[in-house]
C-alpha cells in the first residue's frame, strides 16, 4: 500500500525556543519512504538527531514568531502481517536487548500496578491468546470518547475512567501487556482510514519473535499505518515537543491511498 | 582508584522463573574491569543480553530453588572529574541522540509535574549553577531516612514526604533536572565509602557536553563509584528483576579500596 | 441476638500524647448496650466527646508508657432487616440533612472518580438492584487478601489491585454507591462469626428511606455486628487515633454469642 | 459591616435533575441576615435541607431547561476578631465534638500526607505561631494563578504545582493545619473587596477555643466575608451540585458595602 501524507501545522511562539519534531516517516524495515519534504516558513535551520538504529527521524529547530510546518511524503508500507493473537511470548533470555526496556513501567504506563489484575483476569491464558483477550477486554470495557483525558492521563486513570482516545487505549494496552510479561511499546503513525484523518498512537507487541503493530482502538488496520516515532509511551512519541512556550494555531493531516 | 567488589546474594525461588541480573560492573569508558567472576550455585546457564553501546552487562538465568549468586570484581575507576555545578546545559539540537530520552518523564521521575516548581524556584539560574542549587535544595529539604519509601514511591511522593533513601534522592534530583531541561539519568553503582557498603542509586547529568556522575545524597564521591546499570530510573537499574516470585534470604556487599 | 465483647489492647507510648478511642458500642437505635466497662491500666483520666445525635462513643485519654486497654460489653442487637438489594434510592430533597455528606467523595472513597465506571456498568439498574449488582461485582472481581493494602490505600487502588481486606472492600463499595447517587458510609463494628474474631469495617447505605448495614466482604451477617463508629471512611472510624507516636504491642478481640 | 449581595446564575439542564444550592447566607452566630430572597425562573419548588445546628442553608430543586437563579441579600457581619496567629491550639479532649472530624484527612485535603513536611518545617512552632508560619509559607511559595487547577486538584497537587486559586490555597492551608493537629475546615463566602467580586473559598481554624476565619490567599478581610457553607473541603461547600448534567451559561456576583 502506498500512502500520501500531507501535514500542515501552524504554531505561534512568543519567545525563541527549541522545538523537537517527530513528524517524518521512519526509515524502518516495515516501510519505504518514496519521497518526502519537510518545510518550515519562515525558513529556519533544522538540526537532525535521527536514530540510525530504529530509523526514527528527529528534527530540531529554533522557533520564534509564527511558524508554518509542512510535511509531505509518499510512503510504501510493506505488508506487516500483524497477528498479535497468534505469536508466542519470548523468554526474557531470548529477547533482543532493546526489547528489555519495553517490559518495564513508564510514565504513562505504570505496568507494575496492573500485575495483580492481569494475573487474576488473564492468568490462565498465554502469549497471543492472552494479548488478544486483553485487547478484547479493553474494547469491551473502555469507550472511545474525546474530552475525558489530557496530557497527564495515565493508563491507571483510563482503567478507572473507562473512556479515552487512541493515546489512552494504547497506554492501557501497553500496560496490560508489560504486566503480563509481553514487551510492548508505543508508536505514532499517520493512519489511513481514520475519520477525520489524524496522527494516531498505536501499540507494538513483541510476539512470535518479532514486533507486531496493532491499534488497540481497532479503528486503523496495521497496513494503513505509516510509522513515525517509537518509544515507551506518549512521552517518547509526541509529534511536537516545545522546550518553552508555543501556541497551537491550527493543524491538518491528510492521509490518502495512492496504490 | 582500584576497587574490589564482593557481592553475595541468596534467594529462594519456589517456582521456576527467569531472573535478570544487573550486577556486573559496566564496560564503560569511565572504568576498567581488571578481573571479575559471576558464579551461581547450583550452577545454571547464564544468557547474556549485554548492551554493546553503553557497556551495560545483563545476565539472565532460569532460577529454581535456593540460589547463591556471587560476584567478585576488581575495577579501576578512571578519574571522572564530575563537577555538576560547573558545566553548561546543551541546546537540544546539540545533544547526542541518546540523551534526548533523558529529558522526558519516566515512571518514578514524572518531571513534567515539576516544571512550574523548577521555573518558580530555580528559573533565574542556569546550567551548572541551576543544577547545583537544585541539589542543594534537596539536601536542605529532604532527610535521608529508611523506611518511608517503597518500590512504588515516586519523586512526587518524596517531594511531599521530605524523606527517603538514595533511590528517592536520585529520583527527585533527576526529576528536577529534566524539568529544568537538563538531561538526567539513573545509575546503579557499587559505592565505596558508604556505611554499610551497599549498592547505590546515583544520578548522571549531561552538562558541559558530557555525562557527569553525582550522588544526590552527597554520601559517596563520584570516583568511588563502580558503574553497573544506567537508565531512566529505578525501573531500569534494579540489580535483580524476578519474572515471577522469589524470596530474598540474605545479601551482602563489600566494596574495598585496593589502590 | 446478644453478643459479648472482650477487647484487650496493649500499646506503648514513649512520649506523652493524646489518644482517641472509638472502641465502645454505640448508643444507637439498632442495638442496646446491656452492660459495659472500659478500663485503662495504669489508670488515666478519660474525657468523653460522645456524639449525642448518633450515639457514637468517643473516649480521649492522655497516654504515656505502657497502657492496657480493656473493653467488655454485652450488647443486644435488634433485628436490622438489612436488605440492601430491595429498597428504593431517595431523591436528594427527601434525604435527611445528615445523609447529604455521605453522597460526597472522601479521603479513601473518591467517588467522583467512579462516576463514569458506574454509569457505564450499572447505569441501567436502579436503587436496590443497582446496589446489589455493585456488591456482586466487587465480590466477583476483588479477592479478600491481607498484605496488599495499607493505611494510604484508597478505593481507587483497590479497584486496580483487585484485592484487599474489609476496609478496602468497604471503601470500594461506598465509592460505587456514592457515584451512583446512593448515600453510603463506613461503620466499624465488632463482628460475630469472623474467623479470627476482629473489628470489622462495613458499609451502611441509605435505601428505602433508612440506613441499611451490609458487609461488602459478605463474611459477617448484619445482625451479628455491634456498631461502634460511623463516618465517611476509615479516617472517621479508626478504633484508635494516636496524636503523636505509639507502638502496638498486642491486641485481641473476642466476640461471642450469649443469646 | 453590612454587605449587599446580588447573585445571578443561568444554567441549562437538558434533562430533568436535582440541584443542591449552597448559595444563601448562613444563619450563623457571626452574621445576621437582614433580608434576602431566592428566586428561580421559571418557578420551581424548593425543598429545604437546612442544617439547624450550623445554620447552613441548603436548597434543593428539580431543574429542567433554562433556569435563572437570583439571590439577593443584605447581611450584617459581626466583627469576627480573627487572629489566627494568636490563639492556642486545643487539646483533643477539650475540642467540641464537632471539631474532631476537621482534624482528619478529606478528599481534597489529604492531611496525612503532609505530616512529615509539617513536622520538619514547622515542628518547632506551636498554635497560632505555627498557623501563621504555615500561612506565610503558602503565600511565599504558591502563586495565585487561574487555569492550573480543576475540580480534581488536591492540596497535594497544589503543593507540587505551586500555583492555584482560592480553592487551592484553602485546601493546602487546611491540609497543613490538620497535619499540625489544628482543626481546620473550608468555608464558602461572598467576599467583599475581591476584584472581580466572587464567591470565595476560605479556611476556618480552631484556635484559642473558637473558630477563626482566615483567607489563605490574603485577598479578602475576614470581616468582609458573608458565610455560606462550611465543610471538610470543596466537596462540601460547592455552591451548586448538579445530580445529573447541567451547563453553565453565565453567572455574576455583586457584593457591595452599604454600611
Structure description:
4 copies of one chain form a homotetramer. Chain A has 5 helices and 12 strands. The first copy, chain A, is α+β, with helices and mostly antiparallel strands and 259 residues long. The first copy, chain A, folds into 2 domains: 95 residues, Sandwich (Immunoglobulin-like); 146 residues, C8orf32 fold, CATH 3.10.620.30. In chain A, the strands form 3 sheets. In chain A, strands 1, 2, 3, 4, 11 and 12 form a 6-stranded antiparallel sheet that branches. A 4-stranded antiparallel sheet of chain A has the order 9-8-7-10. In chain A, strands 5-6 form a two-stranded parallel ribbon. In chain A, α3 links the parallel β5 and β6. In chain A, α2 runs antiparallel to α4 and α3 crosses α4. The mean pLDDT of chain A is 95. At the A-B interface, β4 of A face β4 of B.
